[in-house]
Amino acid sequence: MTYIDTYNNKAIVFVDREQSVLAIIHRLLRDLTSGYDLIPATSEATALSLLDKHTVSLMIIDAHPSVDTISLIHSVKARDPNCQILVLSYADLPPNQNLELAGADFYLSMPFPFSHFGQVVQTALNRNMHMSYA
After folding, report:
1. Using CA atoms, how far apart are residues 71 and 75, in angstroms rounded to an integer?
2. What is the pLDDT of residue 70?
3. Which among 2, 11, 51, 101 has the fewest CB atoms less than 10 Å away?
4. Nearest to 106 by CA among 131, 128, 79, 129
5. Cα–Cα distance measured from residue 44 to residue 55, given in angstroms and rounded to the nearest whole number
6. Is it true that the peptide bond before 111 is cis, omega within 30 degrees of 0?
7. How many whole angstroms separate alpha carbon 24 and alpha carbon 93?
8. Parallel, antiparallel or unpaired: strands 37-41 and 84-89
């Protein structure tokens, strides 16, 4: 599954092991963003390798028991502290506090309203833009 439409090497990466979830997130992002490559990743290794190839403004991680979300956040922030991280999670997964301590910038508990997701994505992209120029 490839969704890359090259604009200017700015990217939003979304990480999930399930193709159906990646497709849903892509549809949501396509309607919210322009000028960003929308790149799915089905593993932590793929997500990290994308940091070497693209300027990733936002990484959206669907937290799942099989994903070491905390380690992924640490690795992303070590490579690019300006990359904003949004973690999507069900309430029974890692507590918000642990994710913030690990370096996650935003956290949404599922299910969430589409409008709230859109606001968080726009806030993250604006924050990244300001940090990149600082």
Report:
1. 6
2. 87
3. 2
4. 128
5. 17
6. yes
7. 21
8. unpaired
| pLDDT tens string 71-105 | 999 999 999 999 999 998 876 555 556 777 678 99
Rounded CA separation 56/117 (Å)? 18
3-state helix/strand/coil string of the chain? CCCCCCCCCEEEEEECCCHHHHHHHHHHHHHHCCCCEEEEECCHHHHHHHHHHCEEEEEEEECCCCCCHHHHHHHHHHHCCCCEEEEEECCCCCCHHHHHHHCCCEEEECCCCHHHHHHHHHHHHHHHHHHHHC
What sign does the CA torsion over 45, 49, 51, 54 have?
negative
User: CB within 8 A of 77, min separation 6: which ones?
Assistant: 83, 85, 103
Q: Would strands 55-62 and 106-109 be described as parallel, antiparallel, or unpaired?
A: unpaired
Q: Please, what are the domains in the chain? A: 10-128 (3.40.50.2300)
**Contact call for residues 48 and 74 (beta carbons, < 8 A):** no
